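so my prof wants the structure for this chain in the tokens format not the other one, which i didnt know existed until like an hour ago. anyway here's the sequence
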Amino acid sequence: MAWPDDSQFAPAPPPRGRARIRLSGIAGFTLVVVGAGAIAAAALAQQHAPSPASSAAGAVGGAAKGPSLRRSVPVSVSIPQIGVRSKLLSLGLNPDGSIAVPSLATNAGEAAWYKYSVTPGQVGASVIEGHVDSYQGPAVFFRLGALRPGNQIDVTLADGITAVFRVTGVREYAKDEYPAKTIYGPTDYAALRLITCGGDYDFATHHYLSSVVVFAVLSSATRPAAAAPGSA
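here's what i got, hopefully its the right format
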């Protein structure tokens, strides 16, 4: 009903007392997200999420001397090309070390920022995840696989700045070929990764067999307009 039971490694939270998140490597935490126990509603409706085209594979990297922003927690994400506009939850890890994901029952329409990754626009890999479908049907990232290099992703931050990202590649990975270090590992540019389920749905295990990953780089930022003098 949404997320696959992937074994994917993500950066660990920092030790207590550290003021900044440091993505110096890949820690031994496994992204094991529970698939739903019922047949996917989207499958029942004969809907299938778009799969990335081979021509959309593009590149996973960016320019080392590209723009970057100071740390500010993301509050919403907008992807005009596929009609996504969602506030962002801030989620970390479950007690067993797996990455927490939005509730299928109450938050399938919302994406979540992995709070132990850098904030969008900082140098490093920022991670946003979302379900592909839910008990009711398509979820927030149902059309993620339809993105193409050059498409735009806007992430609004708590300080009012909107980080504007350009998609560089869209790829689908089988669970046993998931390139965790490429996705979660440190970068020397401001990177964004969007992740959801993909591929075929296994009705026996109630899990998707693949993951769709969008790679993007910070291209610019827009700042809130200054208030006019004397305005209330």
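also thought this was worth mentioning. The CA atoms of residues 79 and 153 lie 5 Å apart.
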